[in-house]
Amino acid sequence: MATSVRLRRLGITAVAAAGGSTLLLRDPSISTSDRGAAAPALDTLRHRIANANGVVPPRSAHRSALIASTAADPVDILVIGGGATGCGVALDAAARGLRVGLVEREDFASGTSSRSTKLIHGGVRYLEKAVFNLDYGQLKLVFHALKERKQLIDNAPHLCHALPCMTPCFGWFEVVYYWMGLKFYDLVAAGRLLHLSRYFSAQESVELFPTLAKKGNGRDLKGTVVYYDGQMNDSRVNVGLACTAAISGAAVLNHAEVISLHKDKTSGRIIGARIRDNLSGEEFDTFAKIIVNAAGPFCDSVRKLADKDVQPMICPSSGVHIILPDYYSPEGMGLIVPKTKDGRVVFMLPWLGRTVAGTTDSDTIITMLPEPHEDEIQFILDAISDYLNVKVRRTDVLSAWSGIRPLATDPSAKNTESISRDHVVCEDFPGLLTITGGKWTTYRSMAEDTVDTAVKSAKLKPNNPCLTNYLRLIGGDGWEPSSFTVLAQEYMRMKRSFSGKVVPGVMDTAAAKHLSQAYGTLAKHVASIAQNENLGKRLAHGYPFLEAEVAYCARNEYCESAVDFIARRTRLAFLDTDAANRALPRVIEILASEHKWDKAKQNEEFQTAQRFLQTFKSTKNAQFHDGKHT
C-alpha cells in the first residue's frame, strides 16, 4: 500500500535585525502577492461573518446539504471529527471557497479539545531540548508554535489572552538558568512576543502570589522568573470555529456518526460515508471527493472502516487536571514548575474564576469518557503542595477530568521512536486523509496543511489561498476588553422568581464580563434574551452563567443536549461538578422549551448528564478506597 506521510511544514526563517536583538519570522506558505490577491475574498468573508450577527444556519439545513451530495455531485471535502483540528479544516476549506461538510459523533469539542491544559504555548520544554541537544528541528517547532500562539490570540481575542506564569527558583543557579532560558524564549518569539519576561525577588514574588511558599524542599525561595504564554477557553474557541465555518458556507453537523465508508467499485478509492444522525436515528449517505479523518484519539477507528487490519498510528496519553478554589492562585498570575522533585512539570493557573492544576502524562486506553484515577489526582495535589504555603486538601477539588492526547506515529515506521508531539498528515488509503497529533496551539496551521494536501490529492480547485491567518472568529471582530461596560450600562437581568413574579436585577460586572468574554460582540444578544425573555437568573450560585445562555446556545450554537451546555457552551461541569448537577433541571427545562422535548426525553437527558458528571471526580462524587477518607 502506498503511504504518503507528511510532517508539518517548518518553513520558518529567522533573521537577526539590526543590533542583534530581534528576530523576524516569516512563513513562506503565504507570499505577499498571495495576501494581495486574497484581500477581496478575505474582506467579503469578514463582512459575511459580521453581517450574520451571530445567526447560523439551522442544523436541519446542514443535514439537508450533506444529504444532497451524490456520487455525481459530491462535496469537495467531508471532515470526520468536530474537534479543534476538524473544525479548523472545515473553516479553512470553506474560506477557500470549497464545498465542505463536517460530521461529529458527539458534540463539537466533546473529546480532547475541551479537556486541554487551557494554555496557548510555544513550548519552553522544546526550546530547552533544542538548546541542549543542538536539535534544530525542536527549535523550529518552537518558532512555529510561537507564531501560532500570537495568531490564535489575535483571531479570538475575547476567548484568549496573555497570562503571566511564575517559575519559582530555590537556588541562585536556578535564577540564572531560568532567566537566561526565558529571555531566549522572548528572543525566539521576537515580533510575536506577548510581554517581556523578568525576574522578581522573593519578597516581590510573594506579594504577587501570596500562596507561594518561601521554602521548598528545605531551600529558601531566591525569587521567581515570570514569563508570558497564552490562555483560552478551549471548548468555546472550538464552538466558535464550528459556527464561523457554518457562516462561511460549511455544512457542520454534530451528533452525527460515520458508520461505514463507501468505496468506488472500480478504483477502490473512498468516495463517501454512511452517516447516522444520532438525534433522529436516521441514516443517510454523503459523497465527497476526499474525506479528512480528524477524529483525534479515534482516528484509528475511522481508518479501520477502510481496512480492519490497518496498523495503529495513535499512542494515547492521559492528561489529568483538577479544579481548585480561586484562593489557590491570584487572579492574573499562574505558577509553573518546569521540574518537580520527580522530574515532572506541574502548573497552577487561574481560569474562569477558579484554579486549574495539572497535569499527568501516562499511557491510557481510548474511551469516550475517560476518567481520572485517584492516584493521578493525588499526584497533582502532592506536587503543588511543595510550592504553596496553604494546606492542599482533597476536599477542595471541585472537579477533575482526564483528556486523551492523540500522540501520533508514522504508520510506515518500523519502530516507536517516531512518536511525536508534532502532527502527521497521512493518506494511507486513497480518498481518506488522516490528520492527527499536534496540539491546540497549532490547530490552524495543522488545518492549513491538511487542506493543502487535500487540494493536491483530490485535484480540488479553491477560489483563493488560505485565509485563516487573518480571519477572526465569530464574536471577535470589534471586541474590546472594555466591551462588558456596555452590557452593564444598557441591560437588565429580568429574573422570574419561584412564585412566578418577574423581578428586575442589574447586569452586574461579573455577569457582564462573563458574557463579553464568552460571546464577544454577540454578548448583547444574550443580554437581550436575559432582559426581554425574563431569563436573567443565574443557573448556579457563585457562577455568572445565566439562563439566557441556554436559550441563546440552543438557537445559535447547535447546543443539542444538556451535556453540550454544561460542558462545552459553558464550562460549569469542568469548574464545579456539583454546581453543574444542581443546575441540570433548569438547563433541561429551558432546552426542552427550545427543542420541544417531551417528558421522556427530558428524563433521558437528565440521566445522561448525571452519568457524564460522574466521570468528573469532584470530592462529593469521588470514590475513595485508601482507608483515609469517609
Structural notes for this entry:
α3 (84-95) packs parallel to α8 (234-247), α3 (84-95) packs across α11 (443-458) and α18 (577-595) packs antiparallel against α19 (599-613). By secondary structure, the protein is α+β, with helices and mostly antiparallel strands. Strands 6, 7, 8, 11, 16, 17, 18, 19, 20 and 21 form a ten-stranded mixed β-sheet that branches. Strands 1, 4, 5, 12, 13, 14, 15, 22 and 23 form a nine-stranded mixed β-sheet that branches. Mean pLDDT is 89; it is low at 1-34, 414-418 and 622-630. The chain contains 19 helices and 25 strands.
Defining traits:
630 residues, alpha+beta, D-Amino Acid Oxidase, Chain A, domain 2, Helicase, Ruva Protein, domain 3, 3 domains, globular, disordered C terminus, glycerol-3-phosphate dehydrogenase (quinone) activity, EC 1.1.5.3, FAD/NAD-bd_sf
What is the compact description of this entry?
The protein is an alpha+beta fold. The protein has 3 domains: 60-114 and 252-313 and 423-458, FAD/NAD(P)-binding domain; 119-234 and 316-407, D-Amino Acid Oxidase, Chain A, domain 2 (2-Layer Sandwich); 482-615, Helicase, Ruva Protein, domain 3.
Mean pLDDT across residues: 89
Distance, first to last CA: 57 Å
Whole-number count of domains = 3
Give the fraction of residues assigned to helices. Answer: 25-40%
What is the CATH architecture assignment of the largest domain?
A: 2-Layer Sandwich
* CATH class term of the largest domain: Alpha Beta
Number of helices: 19
Shape: globular
CATH topology of the largest domain: D-Amino Acid Oxidase, Chain A, domain 2
Rg computed from alpha carbons, rounded to a whole number of angstroms: 24 Å
pLDDT < 50 stretches:
1-34, 414-418, 622-630
The number of E-state strands comes to 25
CATH superfamily of the largest domain: D-Amino Acid Oxidase, subunit A, domain 2
Give the percentage of residues in beta strands.
15-25%
The assigned structural class equals: alpha+beta
Largest sheet, strands/sense/barrel = 10 strands, mixed
Cofactor: FAD
Organism: Kalanchoe fedtschenkoi
Catalytic activity: a quinone + sn-glycerol 3-phosphate = dihydroxyacetone phosphate + a quinol
Domain Alpha-glycerophosphate oxidase C-terminal: 466-601
